[in-house]
Amino acid sequence: MVIGNTAKGAFFPLSQSSVQRIGCMPTMQAAYKMFYIVAPLMGLTVFLAGSMGLVSYAYFVKVRCDPLASKFIKNPNQIIPILVTEIFQEMPGMTGLFIAGLLCASLSTLSSGYAAISSMTLQDIIKIKWPNLSEKKSTIASKLTVLVISFLSASIALLFANIKGSLLKLASMIMTIPAGPYTGIILYSIFCTSATSAGAIVGGIVSLVFYLWMAIGNIVLSPPSVEKKLAPAPIDMCFENSTLVSYNTTTAASTSSPAPLEGFNQIYGMSFQWFDFIAIILVFVVGLITSKIVGAPREEDVDARYVLCFTEQFFPYLPKKVKYVLSCRSTIPKRRKQIKVEDRRYNVEMVGGTTVLEEEKGYNKNFREDN
Predict the structure, then answer these.
(1) Whole-angstrom Cα distance, residue 292 to residue 12?
(2) pTM (two decimals)
(3) CA torsion through residues 77, 222, 202, 180, sign
(4) Are 173 and 219 within 8 A, CB to CB?
């Protein structure tokens, strides 16, 4: 779960909406501050979302009436609405306020997503085809794009309503199908100096096909869940004066579990939490093999401004010799430091004349000696 959610979380800073927000910042320092503010709030949001499930489970254990086990509801996605109607049944307006807040949050997310899709469609497709499109026609095309996407989203939502399984699992598999390959392509381009466009394309396609294959197979076959679940809450106190109807112990037996998978179909029993991680690894493996076949560029020919060293980013406090060995003796870290020195020198010359910092002179001397 930790590995899978980490792979999913890697998509957020690389998504179009995040990149668009970064591009709106005036400086890199402002962009860093923005992430320092957003990251804790994002973690708080995920924590609160998880807390909703814990609170609902604790409540139904306390009242000793599990709506799923008592067959009052058949879909686990209905647990939170049932919880709200139970808690606020004697407080008029609170249920409506909850639904209003839920809709407002959904509309906020959808509006930003539609705006991002509309902007990408206009800039990357429509204006490529018609570069001289007027401002008025561009606005109309952007609005029509939002209209088409909204109809498609509504159709997908209606389709999801008829698919068995929790909404979290369906959303993680279906809505993030492009996220895993996309994240893999970006990370492959950043950390691999031998990356090529052919490797990124082939690796992305193979990863996308794998994700689609596993997601569709998982939905169609509905394999037994491999994720550990909490034990059902008691059902001996379901009573008639509650919004939960009374139950009969003879009919409250647990539902039949899906038949176990056999043969090759056992692969579909893999937890959906692994899909994004495997998709990212596939991009790296297939991309590197493809780059080797078509001819990878030499490291010294790669622009060091657009690549990063894995050990420098994730293990910065290791000894320099250890990092040098782990990075396969890459020269990217030294070249990036040299570029930073040159950028600082340029800024100093632009602001305060031609004065060069003494520490930069010393670093340049050491850099030449190392090479």
Answers:
(1) 30
(2) 0.71
(3) positive
(4) yes
